[in-house]
Task: structure prediction
Amino acid sequence: MAQFRLQGSKVLAVDMTGDAVKAKNGAMVAYDGQMAFKKMSGGGEGLRGMVTRRLTGEQMAVMEVKGHGTCYFADRASEINLVRLQGEKLFVEAGNLLCTEAALRTGTTFTGLRGASQGNGLFTTTVEGSGQAAITSHGTAVVLRVTKQYPLQVDPGAYIAHTGDLTQHFQSGVNFRSFIGEGSGEAFQIRFEGEGLVYVQPSERNTVGGEV
Result:
């Protein structure tokens, strides 16, 4: 089984003994031993995955890396966060997914207005099963717990990923004052309710809400 470990905070080292992992295309920065790289069309899920991605616009350029030794991955000096899944589903923006164990299944799901507010389209990527995944963030991410008693509001531009039994609602504070130039500066939030974890980065992408 491939072993994920961090080499510092910005490089992922994966030890493999004949195993395979799926990684963002071009994310390899070094390796020792014997490795083989194979670009996977449509994100590695065959014709169905390719068609799904073309329909949703949730593009993932993925490669399979297989071999014996250690392969190192990074993505533009982004911070890397390890997520261990135990039969759960991880919801993550495609641009933040760096690497997964080969056994984990990837797919897409509808996000509606939340995705639109982030400028990332109406769909997001899912990773499901048991194993490890590595996701990136701009700055060190924090993992915030959501409980039934304590829902969480997140800026769409700072959201990275979430796990657990969570429902999400899009909140808008846009009103007449927004249109006369007296908006709050935080016009949109995502409200998470239920039980789970939300990954948030200390940096905001440009979003629709950030301009209102």
User: Anything to note?
Assistant: The longest helix spans residues 46-56. Residues 144 and 198 are 5 Å apart (CA to CA). Helices lie at 46-56, 113-118, 176-179. The chain has three helices and twelve strands.
